[in-house]
Amino acid sequence: MAVDTALSEIRNVVGDRNVIVGDDTSGHVVDWTGRYVGSTPAVVRPGSTNDVAEIIRICRRHGIAVVPQGGNTGMVGGSVPLNGEIVLSLQRLNSVGEVDELALQITAEAGVTIEQLQNEVAAAGLRYGVDFGGRGSATVGGTIATNAGGLNVLRHGMTRAQLVGIEVVLGTGDVIEMMSGLVKNNTGYSIPDMMCGSEGTLGVITRARLRLTPQQPFCHTALLAFADVESAVTATAHLRRALPGLEAAELMLSQGVQLVCNEFDLSAPLGDEYPVFLLIESVSGHDHLDSFAQHISELEGVITAAIAADDRQRKLLWRLRDDHTTAINRVGVPRKFDVTLPHDRLAEFVTAVERHISSAAPTATTWIFGHVGDGNLHVNVTGFDGDDSFDQSIYELVISMDGSISAEHGIGTSKAAFLPLQRSAAELNLMRGLKAVCDPDGILNPAAIFA
Ligand code: FAD
Ligand code: MLT
Ligand code: ZN
Question: How far is the CA of 306 from the centre of ligand 1 (A)?
């Protein structure tokens, strides 16, 4: 069979021990939420860009489809082999270069985790602008492939804003290397920008050149309680003007905070009874605790607030937010809706989506949290199997309110059928044209993005 011949050629490239088959592939065929389960003839683990290029050429020759995989923390079923594809795991490409102190940049291989990268650059007094709860497993390559957002988009932008160079292997097996790190380089179309958010459908990212920023010595974190979402949204807008170093403004509802506290035996500093919470964090080169506290006290709608007095308290506040995803997964396999709304419609959307879900799925529980400073809400539904028509009804609600059906997780396989709700025929044609040039035989993640 073609796949057996391809695998034997791939063994010659990476060695037997880097072609995993049978039960040992189990961690690579199910996604993090447990919703998307596939199977694969093998997980292949290249150790260099050349290995990746050789593997892609072999797969192309034999017409074998490949799913690139980093940390397998993706939320939209794009990282698992749902149609029996070979899994191309980038985890062995895990080295980080020296910090470039002049340019404030670093080169990292695709399989480096976000946590590993943050630790490396912290030692040089620097930080990388993308961070989120999946940092321990999510990789540089995976976050570029999904254009991940996370907790600090307010100040640093999404992954695309950090990317100043890329090395990528196209579906043709050609290697594109644009790693000079030149911030200004208007020489035709921007290939790094194009690869960012392509979800493994245009090329396999092997290395990236990333922008760093100085670590700010002072960081203040607070939890604020509100009676409703609208007050929290308005307060966020005020804080964005008042605190230039505002890095995070994260929304949580009482039900989610209660769940996290119960699951992880934590106690919320303000109690968990208030309807709406906002977790904020602001950094600066000087100690701005007084003005931080002052701005909070001047906000309208704050019922009560707690400012973290030390790093231990800061970490506790962040656990209330970071652990939402894990806690919800413990309740059951969630249906996840990662959406953005215009800021002035966020509160209305929360009410509308809760009402919609309780009428369409009376047995379901709805969990809402997210990056409210970016207009990004995560709506999770447990206790209800649902189907495509349920998902479509949520996306239609989002679009009717001028929002986007994917804020930061991407389209993957789970939203591929719904992409035409959002993107025009001309836009989809352009995307398909790009795909045809970069991956003429359609071997790269064929089930993702396009239905
Ligand atoms: P994978 O899950 O392995 O892959 C994701 C997609 O990228 C797939 O389509 C895959 O084919 C492709 N891909 C992976 N590596 C490559 C490569 N080298 N070249 C080409 N394509 C590749 N996401 C956010 O945006 N914001 C958050 O706040 C956030 N929080 C999270 C919190 C938790 C607890 C968890 C579990 C996940 C969270 N995520 C978040 C989702 C997820 O971590 C991101 O989508 C992340 O970017 C995926 O990285 P990964 O390395 O795990 O990629
Ligand atoms: C988050 O912000 O925690 C994530 O994007 C993960 C999720 O949606 O569960
Ligand atoms: Zn998120």
Answer: 32
* Residue 201 beta carbon below 6 angstroms from any ligand 1 atom: no
For the question of whether the overall pTM of this predicted structure is more than 0.85, the answer is yes
Tell me which residue of 339, 347, 352, 335 sits closest to 390, measured CA to CA. Answer: 335
Give the residue, by CA position, lying nearest to ligand 1 atom 47: 143
Q: DSSP 3-state assignment of 347? A: helix
Query: pLDDT averaged over consecutive 10-residue blocks of the chain (451 residues)?
Result: 96 98 97 97 98 98 98 98 98 98 98 98 97 98 98 98 98 98 96 98 98 97 98 98 97 97 93 92 96 97 97 96 97 97 98 97 97 98 92 98 98 98 98 98 98 89
376/31 Cα distance (integer angstroms):
22
Query: Could you identify the atom of ligand 1 that is nearest to the CA of residue 74?
Result: 2
Q: Is 46 in the pocket of ligand 1 (CB under 6 A)?
A: no
| 3-state secondary structure (DSSP) of residue 178 | strand
In degrees, to the nearest 5, what angle opens at C-alpha 63 toward C-alphas 58 and 64? 75
* Ligand 2 neighbourhood includes 326 CB (under 6 angstroms): no
Both tokens of residue 105?
Answer: 């940049």
Q: Which ligand is nearest to the CA of 409?
A: 1
Distance between CA atoms of residues 221 and 232, nearest Å: 16
Q: What is the pLDDT of residues 342-372, one digit of tens each?
A: 999 999 999 999 999 999 999 999 999 999 9
Cα 349 from Cα 229, distance rounded (Å): 10
d(CA 306, CA 243): 17
